[in-house]
Amino acid sequence: MEQLIENKLIQANKTFSEWRKVPFEDKQKLIRKAAEILKNNSEKFGRIITTEMNKPIAESIAEVEKCALMMNYYAEAENILKPEKIESEFSYSEVHYVPKGVILGVMPWNFPFWQVLRFAVPAILAGNTVVLKHASICFGSGNAIAEVLLEAGFPEGVFQNLEVGHTAVKEILEHDAVRGVSLTGSGKAGGEVASIAGLNIKKSLLELGGSDAFIIFDDADLDAAAKAGAKSRLQNCGQTCTAAKRFIIDEKIEDEFLPKFIEEYKTYEVGDPFNKETKLAGMARPDLADELEAQFNRALENGAEIIMPLERISENEFRPGLIRVQVGNPILKEELFGPLGMVMIAKSDEEALQMANDIPFGLSNSVWTKKADRQLFFIENLESGTVNINRMTSSDPRFPFGGSKDSGYGTELSLLALKEFVVARTIVGN
């Protein structure tokens, strides 16, 4: 291992021994200060995001502001990590929540600030220290976050950015100082990292891919659904794990809804990512665009029909595409990470549910209906970590975020996230 990385891990472990003793409320004050720095400099940090991965600047600024909002949520949060008294015959009868130590974050490029901070803030508030392995195109974002936390007054070693490639992850995770890992990324990367963590008896949290369903019924507000559906598929150039990727339309409204949806879809035109009016820019890297184009062609070879062609206009830019896909097309077992949506037609509520669930993933789904009994049917039967009713998926600090099936395990956000990287220690006796 490089000496610089070794030193950072030793520093993180050394800082942990002191940081864990800092009162919860004092940690919250530092988080509040960091949130203020982010909010006051959202444009500056937004430009770093856009420069690194092409996100439209308005979305980049919104991402930074959302980080500040999330951090303020934790700055005001109830301390659920206080020792809990348990009724028993013992004089000592408590549960203590003890931080684990140094936690490694392996984070992706699609939300370079949000993904990092939504994992790191609750882990740090719980008393852990964090080392970050960011995507190789996002080292600037990782360094900027580290600088913000230092400026806010966090001690050296609470959060450190490691400028390393993915091949270094195994050695870092095997290091004695590291006690857990949180990964957001592909299923393949998640499986590899979880296996290393498991072999070394270390806690892992995985937030992996999705192929979320967006289900529209005849009693829905079709104009609102069309607008939300296009935004959900195309914001961040479609490079979002919780983006709507499969649009399951009630056959009774196909002729009415689809034209509205296409019209809204067409408002997303590729533009300059640094223009605040731009809603759609290029993908993060040319190789990702190659991959999406290959998936599009593979879907067509397996019977998909073009509704709107996916047109490549540069090495990393597309005019967004829509394809009609039948049950059984192997593309349904994959995640489309880019501006390409799939349309399916359902003859009944039961068929719509079957279509929605018949994939390896289970991240988030969206159902558009005004009928309470239909809402309840999908709430109870959809296989996903989140079910949205008459709204597109967007994570909220107040609510737990996580997936089922191949979309991963563990919880980010909400108060529950504070307990992901702690040990529940039982104290009993007289």
SSE inventory with pairings:
Blueprint: H1 3-19, H2 24-40, H3 42-53, H4 57-75, E1 84-85, E2 92-99, E3 102-106, H5 114-125, E4 129-133, H6 139-152, E5 159-162, H7 169-174, E6 178-184, H8 187-199, E7 203-207, E8 212-216, H9 222-234, E9 244-250, H10 254-265, H11 286-301, E10 305-308, E11 311-312, E12 318-319, E13 321-324, E14 340-346, H12 349-357, E15 361-362, E16 364-368, H13 372-381, E17 386-389, E18 404-405, E19 408-409, E20 422-429
Parallel strand pairs: 3-4, 3-6, 4-5, 6-7, 8-9, 8-16, 9-14, 13-14, 16-17
Antiparallel strand pairs: 1-2, 2-20, 7-19, 10-13, 11-12, 15-18
Helix pairs in contact: 2-4, 2-6, 3-4, 4-5, 9-10
Tally the helices: what do you get? Answer: 13
Instruction: List low-confidence stretches.
Output: none
Give the distance, in angstroms, between the N- and C-terminal Cα atoms: 47 Å
CATH topology of the largest domain: Aldehyde Dehydrogenase, Chain A, domain 1
